[in-house]
Amino acid sequence: MHRGKGMKFVGDSRVSAVRKPNVPKDYSEYPGKTEAFWPNFLLKEWFVGAVFLVGFLCLTAAHPAPLERIADPTDTSYIPMPDWYFLFLYELLKYSYSSGPYQVIGLAIPGVAFLALLLAPFIDRGTERRPLKRPLATGFMLLAVCAIFYLTWEAAAHHDWKKAKEQGKIVKQVAIDKNSDGYKIFAKQTCVTCHGGNLQGSEAAPSLVGTGLSADEIAKIARKGKGNMPPNQFKGSDQDLKKLADFIAGLKSE
User: pTM for this one?
Assistant: First the structure.
């Protein structure tokens, strides 16, 4: 179209001259479809996800994850316990043919199962989706689910939760002078095996911090024993025993 000298107007038929509002189609004529995926359905999903995320963050801030005491490599009596989603593997390694010399079998079983799950879409190329029409896949899946539930139940039922709570309890610490003569004598004795490097105690022995006992009482226990502690555990001179007893009696919890 020409108007005036050298002026041209070019039109494109692909661009609509009338702007249509962003209104979803009426899906009432289509059975099984009630609304458009975008923006109706997707916005609802985002909104529900945002509400769940905010609620979960608030719950996490109000109730933080429980922590145990700082790991002590000198505490040989500590029994580690995995989280609940690994309890079935923990229980699996307790059986005769999946632990000890057969530990490779115990480690290979979940590995083979996971690998089979990854390769399942490539191995089973059938188009049938009904579980009853796929007996092998359905049977293996039910077997795996039942095994996981059973092993998890066995691990939880036979675990001593009371002792686990005690061994992981956070105890008050005290500044210990590890260069003192008393601590050096303590470290040389077998006491450190049960009572820990920081004298915080373990499942097998109580804490030596803030016992409330006098030096003479501590020396007597070291010689004659008490409770689970057998007699004559201290191997040393009376002078070393006195230094050790004075050192332990002077430990006060904060």
Answer: 0.50
